[in-house]
Specification:
The structure holds two protein chains of two kinds. Helix content of chain A is 63%, strand content 1%. Chain A contains 20 helices and two strands. Chain A has a two-stranded antiparallel sheet with strand order 1-2. In chain A, α4 packs across α5. The longest helix of chain A has 38 residues. Chain A is globular. By secondary structure, chain B is an alpha+beta fold. Helix content of chain B is 25%, strand content 18%. Chain B contains four helices and six strands; from the N terminus they run αβαβββαβαβ. In chain B, β3 and β4 form a beta hairpin. Chain B is elongated, with a radius of gyration of 26 Å. Classes of the chains: A mainly alpha, B alpha+beta. Chains A and B meet through α1, α4, α5, α15 and α18 of A and α1, β2 and β4 of B.
């Protein structure tokens, strides 16, 4: 040995290396003077700055303002289509569908559930801004800002009406999806919404076979059924639907008085137009009875949901990595399976004790027991609330857009003779003004 | 329903008030989140080198065409071996840099003679695709000085990292953005 300290250094290195989980099989050489160890060149690589995120937020704000104006102020379907294509191009194909408000739900939930995770400002803006706009102007976000909505709106060529009962039943799915996504994020399993985003693969031009098939079949279905993802899956749409019931201004089919011409009746591919209530309202007592029954059934539904959720706890828990690993390690130790997996190998390489692993898995399981019970109760509540809404009869005198279902696409405007009349008058006025300008 | 006859104006007024209240709550809650720093800071994805088994998923599962994951070299841990198992094939014909002897599919590892019998191995980051072949070789037979890290000048920090979802050993973790790398060190 050229250097008597080398042995000591090597020994220290070996011991410490083992402590850090890595073994120094070959002692680092002691070079003759003149050689200096290179520095790992990425040492100074900084984290990507977030300027792009702020640009995205600014674009989102501008697009939301434009969509609200086009849907409510200008009442222009063409403008909304153009804006939608622009959003699809920017948020979809240019920014690869990330970050989006639908996925931002999960960031918000994770920030609440995990004290170690700080919500990025961009994610907070993307979550809150469309909700605030919906609170004031209805679902203008869905109309022309969301790239997922835009891609489905474009392919919708020959809409077929979905039966009311089926649409209502499928309309429950977004709430279940929302609840499940919140649960899985809160438990630290996965970001469900991002993982099964059907269209992000198209935006990125790369996706697994399963998601390609899922996305493509949604687009094929979307040719006939208006916006299947938005109506029957989108968890953010569920939130927006709730919020838009309170909206300050909303889409009105007719710009003035409804003349009950029924021309707009079939214009909505999303089944969002509600017809006026019949002249002779149903027996009041019957309505009251239905309401009372539903109110009585509601707690039963919640209880049943909670029980069902509790029963599904093991299935949900299986999405968690710790549970899967603990199961595998247990099976291997019990000799029920042959061989090992990459996961179990990696776990054994860390040298942690299996008891700790089982303890951690037990804690996760307990969390899932509570979480799935709450999820089930929530689903029961949603079903009950839907039944309640059906049993409540409101008096309507006009053809109206249901604020929860209307995505402000503007298709119905051109069906309304009052609107056509208004546009004609507007054009004439503009023409006159132009003539006036020309003569002056 | 009892309020069949009520005119729509009071209800609308009530709804507006409710909307305003909800709006105020939403903005207030959101602002409270942003203003009060509850958590240490943003987190980014990174590979825990102690769990990584260099399976090769990092090269293929990233949403970027060229993975954000690259190999890095902890020089203080390196043995500067002449027969580097991270550099050479398991059974090289010869200890030369000829392509058939070399493990790296893109030739991203540069081998340089230092002094007898030591060779220095540096990684050309532009060529590295993060396949982890060298990492596997170095970890199995050498000092494990080569390891994979997500490069944060490339990483998009997706909500659900595609590689993390495909990682067989749960090596992907979220780390504070202030210290976005998990460097291997000789302590």
């Amino acid at each position: 040995m050229r250097n008597p300290y080398a042995v000591l250094i090597a020994l220290v290195v070996v011991l410490c290396g083992r402590h850090a989980g890595s073994e120094q099989r070959f002692p680092p050489p002691d070079f003759s003077p003149g050689y200096s160890l290179p520095v790992t060149e990425v040492q100074g690589t900084p984290a990507r700055d977030d300027v792009r995120g702020y640009i995205d937020a600014a674009v989102l704000l501008a697009a939301l303002a434009a969509a609200s104006y086009l849907a409510l102020g200008r009442r222009s379907r063409r403008g909304l289509v153009v804006l939608g294509i622009g959003s699809l191009a920017y948020f979809g194909f240019y920014r690869h569908g990330c970050i989006c408000p639908i996925g931002a739900i999960q960031n918000v939930v994770l920030a609440v559930a995990d004290s170690g995770y700080a919500l990025p400002l961009t994610a907070a803006i993307f979550f809150a801004l469309p909700l605030l706009f919906t609170l004031f102007f209805g679902r203008a976000f869905c109309a022309a800002v969301c790239p997922l909505g835009a891609i489905q709106d474009i392919v919708l060529a020959s809409p077929v009406a979905v039966p009311g009962w089926l649409a209502r039943a499928l309309g429950l799915v977004p709430f279940v999806y929302l609840g499940a996504a919140v649960l899985l994020v809160a438990m630290g399993s996965t970001f469900l919404i991002c993982r099964y985003d059907p269209f992000v693969g198209f935006f990125r031009l790369s996706a697994g076979l399963d998601l390609t098939i899922f996305g493509a079949s949604l687009l094929v279905i979307g040719v006939f059924v208006g916006r299947p993802y938005c109506r029957f899956l989108c968890p953010y749409g569920a939130l927006l639907g709730l919020v838009s019931r309170l909206s300050w201004r909303r889409v009105r089919i007719t710009p003035a008085e409804c003349i009950q011409c029924r021309l707009c009746e079939d214009s909505c591919p999303f089944g969002a137009i509600t017809t006026p209530s019949p002249e002779t309202p149903p027996e009041r007592r019957a309505g009251k009875k239905a309401l009372a029954v539903t109110l009585l059934v509601l707690p039963v539904l919640i209880a049943l949901g909670a029980l069902a959720g509790r029963a599904l706890s093991p299935a949900f828990a299986h999405t968690h990595a710790t549970i899967r690993l603990a199961e595998r390690v247990w099976l291997e130790d019990a000799g029920r399976v042959d061989g090992t997996t990459d996961q179990s190998d990696a776990f054994r390489a860390t040298g942690l004790s299996t008891d700790d692993l089982y303890l951690a898995a037990g804690a996760v399981r307990a969390g899932f027991d509570t979480g799935t019970t709450l999820l089930g109760a929530f689903v029961g509540l949603v079903i009950g609330a839907t039944l309640l809404r059906i049993s409540l009869r409101r008096k309507r005198t006009e053809y109206e857009a249901d604020p929860a279902l209307c995505v402000a696409c503007g298709r119905c405007y051109r069906y309304c003779p009052v609107e056509i009349d208004r546009l004609k008058k507007l054009e004439q006025a503009e023409g006159r003004a132009e003539q006036h300008d020309g003569s002056a | 329903m009892a309020d069949h006859e009520t005119k729509p104006i009071p209800r609308r007024g009530f709804m507006r008030a409710a909307a305003r209240a909800a709006c105020a709550l939403g903005i207030g809650g959101g602002a409270a989140y942003l203003i009060a720093p509850r958590a240490p800071g943003e987190r980014v994805w990174q590979i825990d080198p102690s769990k990584c088994i260099a399976c090769g998923n990092c090269a293929t599962y990233c949403v970027l065409r060229e993975s954000a994951v690259k190999c890095v070299h902890s020089f203080p841990m390196c043995g500067y071996c002449e027969l580097c198992t991270g550099f050479f094939n398991p059974a090289p014909n010869d200890l030369t840099t000829a392509a058939e002897n070399v493990l790296c599919p893109t030739g991203a590892i540069v081998r340089r003679f230092v002094e007898d019998p030591y060779f220095e191995y540096t990684i050309d980051k532009r060529l590295c695709i993060g396949c982890g072949k060298c990492v596997k070789g170095c970890t199995m037979f050498g000092n494990s000085s080569l390891y994979l890290q997500a490069m944060h000048d490339r990483c998009l920090n997706c909500n659900q990292c595609s590689i993390a979802a495909a990682c067989p050993s749960e090596a992907w973790v979220r780390v504070p953005a202030a210290a976005p790398y998990l460097w291997k060190k000789v302590t």
